[in-house]
């Protein structure tokens, strides 16, 4: 089954929020993650698809059928909420079997299907327990099993992992993607967590102020954002205003930056994007050259080299994220190297030129 939004618009009476002329399609078996800041419209998109509201313009189609006027309970969509929404007085097995009971599936069959669903989420022995005796992660697994037990046309996930701690979120991300792939079901997952989106999605839809800014695979969204709004929201970013002075140079507060600017007119105002992991440390721990001196790795090639003062130096476990003050500006870098950093280099190939 596929999901399609055709020029969908919805505005709230307050005039704030909503969606404006959204068009996108989710294919069978695809996991689309929708991201954006608070109030961007991502939850509105989910509510319109679920049938809690109707679009004021445009169409929403499931399997090619316009679902305008179809009630929420008849859209045949599996939904997992942030709050889990489990019935506290029912056992885990009864919770999972409940959608089948509503569809008048015989008792023996619904119990068997519910037990199979429990096994798929790794809770085969929890069927007789009440939801209140489970951890948050276990309750989320039950909610996922309940959403899929009746084989819905599509799966909707409304920030389902936001209430879990960091370690458990990682495990649940892997479980959700595994089960979603096995079910081969079109899925829309709304989240504010960029790492979650990048690690789970087949494609990501970035929504801002009700408009779809970019729809792309995770690597493309991260490496080639369409503008500074996307670049700043997805991951960490150095964003430098500048002006094109030649096909290979952009003038900035840090000086002339070597990069590929041939697609831009001379004099055009632009913004340069450099991801922190592309900022390479110049190191020489003991004065004898034993550190990996990055400027020597590509002799003869143009390189952007900066010397400055290291200020913030954040140890994050596998990496460190540091700020190098250069003149009146700051360059943020990220590296696994733990020695002394005396400066940084940036390859022209790692500089992206974006609209100002």
| Shape, principal axes of CA atoms | globular
Which sheet architecture does the biggest sheet show? Answer: 6 strands, mixed
* SS-based class: alpha+beta
Helix content: 10-25%
Level-1 CATH class name of the largest domain: Alpha Beta
CATH superfamily of the largest domain: P-loop containing nucleotide triphosphate hydrolases
Strand content is 25-35%
Q: What is the helix tally?
A: 8
CATH architecture of the largest domain: 3-Layer(aba) Sandwich
SSE layout and pairing:
Elements: E1 3-10, E2 19-26, E3 31-35, H1 42-50, E4 57-62, E5 65-66, E6 77-80, H2 92-102, H3 107-120, H4 136-148, E7 154-158, H5 166-183, E8 186-190, H6 194-200, E9 203-208, E10 211-216, H7 218-223, H8 228-233, E11 238-246, E12 249-252, E13 255-258, E14 269-274, E15 280-282, E16 304-307, E17 309-315, E18 320-326, E19 329-335, E20 343-346, E21 352-355
Parallel strand pairs: 3-8, 3-9, 6-7, 7-8
Antiparallel strand pairs: 1-2, 1-4, 4-5, 9-10, 11-12, 11-14, 12-13, 14-21, 15-20, 16-20, 17-18, 18-19
Helix pairs in contact: 2-3, 2-4, 3-4, 4-5
Pfam family, one: ABC_tran
Keywords: ATP-binding, Nucleotide-binding, Transport
Domain ABC transporter: 3-234
């Amino acid at each position: 089954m596929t999901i399609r939004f055709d020029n969908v618009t919805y505005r709230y009476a307050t005039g704030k929020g909503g969606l404006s002329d959204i068009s996108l399609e989710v294919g069978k078996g695809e996991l689309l993650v929708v991201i954006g800041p608070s109030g961007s419209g991502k939850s509105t998109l989910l509510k319109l698809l679920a049938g809690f509201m109707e679009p004021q313009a445009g169409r929403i189609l499931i399997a090619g059928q316009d679902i305008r006027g179809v009630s929420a309970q008849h859209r045949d969509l599996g939904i997992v909420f942030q709050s889990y929404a489990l019935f506290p007085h029912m056992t885990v097995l009864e919770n999972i079997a409940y959608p089948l009971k509503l569809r008048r599936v015989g008792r023996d069959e619904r119990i068997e299907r519910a037990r199979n669903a429990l096994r798929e989420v790794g809770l085969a022995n929890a069927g007789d327990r009440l939801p209140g005796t489970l951890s948050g992660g276990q309750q989320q697994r039950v909610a996922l099993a309940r959403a899929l037990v009746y084989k819905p046309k599509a799966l909707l996930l409304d920030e389902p992992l936001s209430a879990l701690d960091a370690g458990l979120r990682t495990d649940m991300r892997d479980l959700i993607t595994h089960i979603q792939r096995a079910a081969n079901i079109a899925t829309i997952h709304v989240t504010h967590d960029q790492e979650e989106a990048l690690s789970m999605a087949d494609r990501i839809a970035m929504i801002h102020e009700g408009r779809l800014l970019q729809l792309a695979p995770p690597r493309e969204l991260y490496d080639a954002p369409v503008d500074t709004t996307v670049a700043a929201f997805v991951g960490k970013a150095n964003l430098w205003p500048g002006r094109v002075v030649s096909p290979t140079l952009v003038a900035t507060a840090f000086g002339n930056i070597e990069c590929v600017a041939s697609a831009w007119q001379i004099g055009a105002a632009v913004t340069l994007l450099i991801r922190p992991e592309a900022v390479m440390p110049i190191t020489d721990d003991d004065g004898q050259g034993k550190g990996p001196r990055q400027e020597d790795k590509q002799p003869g090639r143009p390189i952007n080299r900066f010397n400055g003062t290291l200020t913030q130096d954040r140890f994050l476990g596998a990496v460190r994220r540091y700020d190098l003050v250069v003149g009146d500006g700051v360059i943020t870098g990220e590296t696994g190297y733990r020695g002394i950093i005396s400066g940084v280099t940036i390859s022209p190939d790692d500089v992206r030129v974006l609209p100002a």
